[in-house]
Prior knowledge:
Layout lengths: L3 E5 L6 H11 L6 H10 L5 E5 L7 E10 L3 E11 L8 H15 L4 E7 L3 H9 L3 E6 L9 E7 L4 H4 L29
Parallel strand pairs: 4-5
Antiparallel strand pairs: 1-2, 2-3, 3-4, 5-7, 6-7
Amino acid sequence: xxxxxxxxxxxxxxxxHIMALVQxxxxxxxxxxxxxxxxxxxxxxxxxxxxAGSSExxxxxxxxxxxxxxxxxxxxxxxxxxxxxWRKRGVASTLVRRSVEVxxxxxVDEVVLETEYDNAPALSLYESLGFIREKRLYxxxxxxxxxxxxxxxxxxxxxxxxxxxxxxxxxxxxILSYPVAPDDDEVSYR
Length: 190
């Protein structure tokens, strides 16, 4: 069995490979700006799978992480694609696990995604990783197909559990809020 290495997105030189993989394997068409939106803002959440002895990726995951409705730190899997000839080797599950682990280290509460309602292999993969079906989205895709929104609840890591809320980190590793001393409430920080 061929060894597969995994690495994070490193820059524009990866973009043509990512686009080719996604366009050949997913039904939804994306313009270059969609790829750049995710890859330039959250490069640490995108990974490529490359077989030993090759420079051509055979799998890719593209994600983002941001605050959702100012209430939860949400990760989003925008694209996951593995070449047909490389499926059933754990590539997709490894890509998902790596991205979710980076999101976990940056304080994610949940990870969501959409997949076509009749994509049994994708549903099986995500459900095996702990994702559950949240709701059906009717005529979600441009091809008219419905989708399922899947969600994975991500518990805090052991290291984060005992921290007070004001010491927990945001996706950019900045402190989310600060405790306020009783006499500090009259001072303006504008």
